[in-house]
Amino acid sequence: MKISCQKDQLHHAVQTVQKAIATKTPLPILTGIYLNAQGGKLELQATDYEVGISCTIDSNVEEAGTVVMSGRFFQEVVRRLPGDTIHIASSQEDRTIQITCGSSQFNLLSLPAEEFPVLKPISSDNTLTVKDDLLRELIKKTVFACAADEARPIFTGGLLEVEGPEIRMVATNTHRLALRQQPLLSAASNVKMIIPAKILHELARLLVAEDPQEVTLAWQKNQVGIQYDDVYINSRLIEGQFPDYRKVIPPSYSTAVTIQAEDFLDAVERVSLLARDGEYNVVKFNFKQDHVLISSNNPDVGKACETVASRMDGNELEIAFNAKYITDILKNIAADELVFSLNTSLSPASIKPVNDENYTYIITPVRTG
Amino acid sequence: MQRWIIHIDMDAFFAAVEQRDNPKLHGQPVIVGGLGRRGVVSTASYEARRYGVHSAMPMSEARRRCPHGIYLPGNHRKYGKVAADIRRILADFSPAVEPLSLDEAFLDVSGMEWLYSDPPEIARKIKQRIRDELELTASAGVAPNKFLAKLASDWKKPDGLVVVRPGQEQAFLKDIPVSRLWGIGGKSANLLQSLGVSTIGQLARIDMGVLAKHFGNSAEPLRNLALGLDDRPVIPDHDPKSIGNEVTFEEDLHSPEELETILLALTQKVCRRLRQSGLSGRTITVKMRFASFRTITRSRTLGEPTLLDHTIFETAQAILGTVPLAEGVRLLGVTVSNLHPYGGQTSLFSLEDDKHLKVCQTIDKLKDRFGETAVTRGRLLLPEMKK
Fold this sequence. Notes:
The complex is a heterodimer.
Chain A: E1 2-6, H1 7-17, E2 32-38, E3 41-47, E4 51-58, E5 60-63, E6 65-70, H2 71-80, E7 85-91, E8 96-101, E9 104-111, E10 127-131, H3 132-140, E11 157-163, E12 166-172, E13 176-183, E14 191-196, H4 197-206, E15 214-220, E16 223-228, E17 231-236, E18 255-260, H5 261-272, E19 282-287, E20 291-298, E21 302-313, E22 317-322, H6 323-332, E23 337-342, E24 349-353, E25 359-363
Antiparallel strand pairs in A: 1-5, 1-7, 2-3, 2-6, 3-4, 4-17, 6-9, 7-8, 8-9, 10-15, 11-12, 11-14, 12-13, 13-25, 15-16, 16-17, 18-21, 18-23, 19-20, 19-22, 20-21, 23-24, 24-25
Helix pairs in contact in A: 1-2, 3-4, 5-6
Chain B: E1 5-10, H1 13-21, E2 30-33, E3 41-44, H2 46-49, H3 59-65, E4 70-72, H4 76-91, E5 97-101, E6 104-108, H5 119-134, E7 138-143, H6 146-153, E8 161-163, H7 169-173, H8 186-194, H9 200-205, H10 208-215, H11 219-226, E9 242-253, H12 256-276, E10 279-290, E11 295-306, H13 309-321, E12 329-341, H14 351-370, H15 378-386
Parallel strand pairs in B: 2-4, 7-8
Antiparallel strand pairs in B: 1-6, 1-7, 2-3, 5-6, 9-12, 10-11, 10-12
């Protein structure tokens, strides 16, 4: 293989695939980045068998071929190379890969390219095409609500669902639930799939192009392929039955409180400073007619309280929540005002932006006393 | 600062409490323990010890050695109350009290030279108050660390008070057999014997290379103990690592149905204790000992911690179902570990669980008020009805 390409393009490609490089693996080949040069293109791939990512860029190919080299070192080297044009050439005799750019030269040992599990794009009629900003919005508004621990795998992913004219994503760790939905502009067939949170985070990170572009998802059995621009991502899907989230969204609330989102976030973060204790992070909310009293009490540390102005429609109420479940949504709410809706101090409550019926966030309270 | 640790060990605790409360038992060989065919001795009074009866001895052996002894099943509720009184006394002397069991505890009294003339004075006062307020005797060991304090309290039982002052450690340990060291069981003791080491004094002098060759990583801690060095802190209020109950049967059980019934009874006890401690657990372990004394444990870990009777029973039942019953079962036990404080965080998908928890808590309340038999499962009544 002998090629040359633009440094910023190669850097973009390496950055795109690097999250799929395996770190803890008994198979050394999976710690590598795979390069395939042919017909004016250079394709980079990495995979840890759970997720595989490929990125293709333009390249001047003098001699076609494939090589694999250490992902970690290749990534570092490309990031720091001087100059604009990078030359990459492989040598069969000593099994090294020469990378040159300006007056800088590296010779990296190659890994056996024939051992690399090359991605096989999913060829399936089950496809869905959406705008990248829409998909990113669905992910960013929900994925933080996924379960972090693997105890129940079904909750470590987000449910992507197309139903009639709506597309939505739902994530929950059983204590809180986030749901974002949007109308679909073009008709699509109904589908449900649970995508691992790790992939969703990665997608949200990658889908940042300035010009709107289309993302195509294709799926079969327990695999999904995601294609946009010059990138292809292949991931396993989480198998199992996602619980019926509709059942746990309360149909109505007896109390609705309107609060300035930013003031509320700041106050809850301050008061929760003293609440951080083990798994729970309990902050009490005393909703009054014209204000909310937020308080925390940690016998080992001390206590804190703060009031935030609010408008209430309904009954005064005292209720306790894990502060993190409140601050997580406030950081993602993207609205000046929010509505906190409640029933009793032991029943699930809802937080949503004012006048936005497409975003639902449900949290369960903590019993106190 | 010089460390000072006191180890308090009640003398023949259960038997002494029985003798205190029943003057007829004074001066008599009293043996408390399981009275069934497979019972073992929990405590023997000093009178009974003269006949060679000691704790952990099979009851049948005790009866053979001391046929005229007075055998009692023991009243653990009463012992628990007395133990709580003892703890109250100990708590008056130090904020750092680590109970080891009902009848022994460590106290860290370092730095209290300001309050008492001499640390042994504290031990003397504790013994005096236990005698005055509870009419019981305790033995005390006072030393610069836990290891020495425990050996010292055992040195002159009953009613002893042994002090090992800094600098006296090795003289005190010199002639004590190595088998008294923590972590030295029969095999290690034999191994040391073959190296010509039978006393702690010899262990302190043996070449480190030889010791390391046979004991690997444990050579270093072993040598430190032999030199009287031990820096383990006194830890008040051990959080439990697991909660479990087990039962040894009068006769080996063969039928899976009977075993399941016992399992249900055990699970209910364990779950009640979980809820009393405000804990929930994720790992459920079933322990079985067979007629041949082969003992197995099998565990399963749940997705989320629980404190519900039916969830834990169903898991234990499933585990039991995987064990082939080739021979009779002598002992059955259930343990819940991987404990988490039971927080009040409610859940979106467990409305059923909330209902179950309410039922369990209501039953607990009824039992607290009207006794353990106030409410029970129909299945647990059956063995009684058969009789």
